[in-house]
Structure formats: C-alpha cells, structure tokens
Queue: 2 jobs
Job 1
Amino acid sequence: MQRIASFFLLIAVLLFSGKRSSADDFFMETFHKGFGYVYNFEFRKADSLVSILEKKYPQEYRSYILGANYYWWKIRSGDTTPVCRRNYSVSLDKLQELLDKKKEVKKIGQDEIFYYINLYSYRSRIELLDNNYIKALSYMTKCNAFITLSANAEDSYEPFNLTSGLYNCFMAMAKKNNPLLAPYFLFAPSCDKEKGLKQLGKCTVNSDFLLSTEANYFLMIFYGEGDIDYSLSASYAEKLSLQYPNNLLYQYYLFKVKLLSGNLEQAMKNLILLFQKSRSMAGLNEVQRKYFTDMAGKDMMEYCKKHPTEKPEN
C-alpha cells in the first residue's frame, strides 16, 4: 500500500501557471514573486501576496493556484494544522467554482483543461495524506480525463509538456512497480516513458521558471525513486538547492540521494547544512524546523544499520 501511495503522490503533481493570460503586469509580477517566496520557504512573504491576489483578482484562476500551492508547501513542510488544511481546501473550492462556471457555458479552452488537471491533482494528494485511497483514485480518474483532452497539444500550449511529461514518466513507472493497480491502468490513458522524459527535458530549459523548477523537481524524484540514477538525481537536487537555498525539501533530498549512493562523506556535509538551515530560518514553527531533519535522522539510522562498520572520511 505504501508503494501505491508513493506513486500517486508523484502523479498528483504540483502545478501552477497556464500559458495565456489577460492579467496585468502587477498580477504577473506578484504571482511570480509569490511562487519564488514559496519555493524558497519564505512563507510569511508569500502569505501576504496570496491575500493580495485573492482580494484584488478573485476571478483569476492563478490567484487560487498560488494559494493552494502555498498551503500545500506548508503542509509538505510539516504544518498540518486544521487551519492550514482548511485554507488549502478553500483555495481549491474557489478554483473549481470558477472552472465549473466556464464548463457550464461550454467555454473550456486549454487554460481550463490545464487548471482542471491542477485541481484534481491537488485534491487527490490531500486524500493520500489521509490514506483515503479510494477517494484519491476517484480524483485521479477525473484528472486523467483532462490529460486525455490535452494529449498532442503540447506544441501549441507549453505547460502541457509538464503535465503530459509527468504522466508519461510516472505512469510508466507505476505500471512496472504496482501490479495491484492493474484495474486502474486499464482505463487510464496510454503512456510513453521516453516521450515523457523528453517533454520534461523541454521544461527544464523553459524560460518560465515555474515550468523549469517543477520539471527539475520531478526529474530529481524520478531518478531518485523510479529509474534509479542517484548521480543524476543529485544533479537536479543541487540545481534546485542553488536556486532556492532555503527550501528544506530540496536540501533534504540532496542529502538523501548522496546517502543512498554511498557517498557518506558528502551526505554528512549536506546533513549538517540541513540542520543549520532548519535552525536559522525565520518564519517556520518548531514542527517545520524538525520535520526534514527528523526524516534525515531516520535515514541515517537506517543506513548505519545496514553499514555498521562504515564511517565518513575525515
């Protein structure tokens, strides 16, 4: 069951920005700045921008995409308080309300398809955290319907390279590793891992830092947990850590893949850096400060059990 949960947490992708927009310069500047703050764990700054956009632009999809993303990263960093979870759900409810209005009048375009993929991916991931697998599968089935609609439209709408790429890569991995999900795969769109890797590769060099950040993140995960290549996974983790040095998840994952690759000396250096950053960063509560360091400590203990005589070089 744990492997099934891991698969869907990967498929339930973290997404954000569509291609087309009639929003003004202030909105776009604030939107991108907000994502930059979220990625760099500057949650206090991000919170104020989320409030500004939702109040000033209540009819803009991305106001709620930023909000959902902000609350998800807080949850992902250990802040699972009822208030944070409720705000996450409220952001998604508001997004769905806007999308459904377009759907009712049959005015769904590529933006709406993209944001429906976002919506159902986000809804499924919170269900997975609560081990509600049936409900998560239901949301992923709805997500797949829109992924089907987006197929072969990547050249005309660049963000579909990310959604299609993620689907192609991680669905292929899931089919290989999760035979219990065979009934689900029968009704899911077809997938092509090599095509997916090319699509994600395009996103890594995209001028939109949102697309490139997400593609780098999921390639880091894919090579760290799917088609294992710890060296390649570490290269993506290093890139992300340099771009967002305060993101504790990126720092943690860099430690993790260094450890899994057997590079204990470098892993210890990354572990020390993770502890230092966790203690010194402003805007985190005590649970968030300990969340990734506790996981790293468990990883180190497990490694030492398997390699009792190994010690890092001085």
Job 2
Amino acid sequence: MKALKSTLVASRVRCAGESRLELGGESFVPDGSKAYFEFWCAHSFPVITTDGTAVYPSVVDRSHRTMLHQVINLGHLMEAYGTSAQDRVLGSVVGIEFPEMPEGGWGLPGSVEASPGIHGVGVLHRACKGVPRILEMQHSGERAWAVSMEVEFYRSECAFLVRRDSLSKLGCSEQGPDEFKAAGWSVYDYEGAPPMLQNTLVNGMPVVATEHQGSVVFLAGGLRGNVHFSGLALTLMGKEPTAKAGRFTASMDLPTDPEKALPHLARVLELIK
C-alpha cells in the first residue's frame, strides 16, 4: 500500500526583487505574470527531519526528477489531500538538479554538511488566487514563507535505522551494511522488522514516536527503493533542518490592495499552522 504523503519542509524564503535565477544552464526571468524562487531540500541521512524520517543518497538520486513540473500549492490545501474543499494551486516546479554520483557510487555521507540534496526552482503564476498578495507580503517583509515537499513511497521499499545502544530494547540485533554499522546504526527492512520496531511509528504512519526519536529513523525508500516527489507547498513551518530556500524573485509591480489579492488570508494562515 502506498503511504500517505510525508512532509519535509524547507526554511524561510526572501524576496529579492526583479532578477533572474539560473539552474542547469537555463535562466528563469520574472515578469508581470510570474515569479520564481529557488530551494534546496531532501538532504540525505544523517540529516533527519523532526518526524524522524530520512532518505539515502542513491534513493534521492534515482527519484529527484519526479519533482519536475509538480504542483506548488498553498499550505498543502488540495481537495485530493482532504485538506481543503478548494485547490489552492500557486504554480509548479520548473527546474531541478541533484549532484552527480561520485566515482564508486553513493555511500553514507560522513556528516550533515556533506549530505547531498535537491536544488530546484519553482514558478508562481500571478493569475492564481493569492499569488500577488504572497509576493507583496514577501517583498515587504510582512511574511517570510517556507517550502514543504510532498513525498510518496511504498512501505515495502522502506527501512528502519536503529542506533546501536537501542537494539536490544527493540528486539533487534546488529546487522549491516558495514557503512551503517561503522557509524553506529543497524538497518532493518520495513517488512522484516521486529514488531517492537514497527510499533515505534505513530499509528503506522511514517512518523517516529517522540520517545524513540534519536534512536530510530524511518528511511523512506530504504537503501534500494524509490520515492516520488509529488508536489511542493508554500507554508509557514519547517521540518528538515538543513533545507533552505534562496532568492525569491518577482517583478516590482506588486499590488498594494490586499483585498484584491488574498481575501481571508488570516483564516488561510491559521489553517496551515
């Protein structure tokens, strides 16, 4: 069964006024009908989200292209997700890249700083409801927005990481691969994991219970699987500590009347906190 969407969230974005973004040899130039922003996210383990989830470098490498052309929405407010009766579409992802695989293949990064991640560019269409007001708020400093990925995966392809000093209390014993054992972790495929280990998830969802975070990590896509990057949201909070957003570019002819741009903004913001 395909898992419900698990959210990884990037850091705050800044509005840099009218300028171009460059990615993969392509230029993205804002105008009166569209704006752009860049972002970095999906950094691999040892980066761990506040939900206790992580990804392995080769999984992101195989999967990162699925993010291209996916929808950008406001705060995950989409009818298909059961979060809103009305889709709040703002734009789409128009550029994506991931570092080249090193010679010898991907391995476990030695540090958080060495973890590879996705670099992308999103477009916001100013004809979409809310976009002019979002740009005005960003440019004026009234509101700094964050980005949040929407990720799907099959549980059968996922895995658990268990810290060495927690193995016995979770009914586990030390096992490879060697690169994880050397770093103090053991890897268990989701479907073959002991019941005590599977029960560390909150109601079976890809969220590690608070009392087990730091000792158990849910590895989306495992070591050999894939994930599907199905969307991106502008929202208010972040879960991935190393994710970040760069320039947020827009032409300078921003609206000054918020009533024409984003009615009921306060109610929308309350919904996505």
